[in-house]
Amino acid sequence: MKTVLTDNSLCAYTLYDGASAEHISKYIQSLAKAGVRYVEIDFRTLMKLRELPDGIGYIFRLVDPMFLGLTELYDFDYVLLTLPDVRRLIKTEVPVMLEIPAADDPEKYSSKLLQYASKLVDGTITAVRIRGAQPLSDLGSVFNAVRFLKNEFPVPIDVCPTNDYKTALDNAVKFTSASIDSLTLTMGITEKYCSLEEFFFTLMSTYGSLPHGLSLSPLCAATVYHRCIFRNRCGDGIMRYMDILEHDIHFLRNVDTNNPVKLRMGLKDTEYLHRTFETALEQMAKDEEIPDDLFADLSSAIREYDGDFYNAELLNLKRKGLLN
Fold first, then answer.
1. SS3 call for 303
2. What is the DSSP letter of 321?
3. Among 17, 98, 133, 182, fewest CB within 10 Å belongs to which?
4. pLDDT at 119
5. pLDDT of residue 276
6. Mean pLDDT per 10-residue section of the chain, whose length is 324 residues
């Protein structure tokens, strides 16, 4: 996949007051392993982190010129400016990404915006972001739009689709097909942006597998840290799509018998059996009248027992496969 991915969740959500620097760092590292090339951050994240994790690029959303001094303390790839930000002179040695509002017609974009901003920036504008909602377009129109944008702006183009028309995901996939330089998405289910999870699962459904460089496993790890660091408990995208898959499997039918196809063992069933096994061992320990000190050790061992081994032996000894 030629398009590189940026995640802006650290700007889109409010960090939990108790979020630790370790969890934020591991969240960023998980995104990097999943295939995200850049993360967008603002001053709130920097107040939590003493240093930025390696292995990924950083876009610093300025928010206010008063935070410009932070660009001298951290190694940013870009400082992100909006048009309101450049109403007064901005001086920086960090490459600038200029964010402009999305237009419903590509021909409304003009390089004059870049020329105007360049006069108010003592630095170099090296990328442009198009942010906002765009109406549903066919793939051919998106290819033409990308071609026009690249001719109009002689710098890399990033697109951050928003969901006002409920078209963010559709546009994200189409812009990727048209080889836009960069695409900005948000980890977690949000009404405003296209989610990273939606994008990954849609690519898997469309192409049968994820493009080279993208990986679902670390994205799952990122969802765990996501819940630890954000105050706004936005929806878990991974579980949402697992529910969709479970729903689809639920309505499968055997082609020979036309009977519903069922999972051998669901997650809830496995957890129930695991707990049943623990309870049985605890009851056995009590019935044996074991001394208190030995009973405490045994109870601890029971809690740490690998119930998956028990489930595998009991349930899968003669039954193999996911579906019947």
1. helix
2. S
3. 17
4. 87
5. 65
6. 94 89 95 97 92 96 90 94 82 94 86 86 94 89 93 94 91 94 92 90 81 89 87 64 67 76 56 62 63 66 54 46 44
Q: Which residues sit opposite 59 in a β-bridge?
A: 40, 78
Dihedral sign from CA coordinates of 175, 176, 182, 184? positive
Helix (H) or strand (E) holding 41: strand 36-41
Amino acid identity for residue 72 in this structure: E
List, in order, residues 6 or more apart from 128 with CB less than 8 Å away: 97, 98, 99, 100, 114, 149, 153, 155, 156, 157, 158
- 48-76 CB burial, b ≥16 within 10 A, e <16: bbeebbeebbbbbbbeebeebebbeeeeb
Instruction: Yes or no: say if 184 and 162 are a contact pair by the CB < 8 Å rule.
Output: no
- Residue 267 structure tokens: 């997650």
Q: Looking at the DSSP assignment, which residues form a beta bridge with residue 80?
A: 61, 97
C-alpha angle 138-143-144 in degrees, rounded to nearest 5: 100
Contacting residues for 88 by C-beta, under 8 A, at least 6 apart: 65, 120
Question: Is 146 within 8 Å of 179 (Cβ atoms)?
Answer: yes
Measuring CA to CA, how many Å separate 273 from each of 270, 276, 310?
5, 5, 9
pLDDT the model gives residue 88: 76
Q: 87: exposed, middle or buried (C-beta count within 10 Å: 0-12, 13-18, 19+)? A: exposed
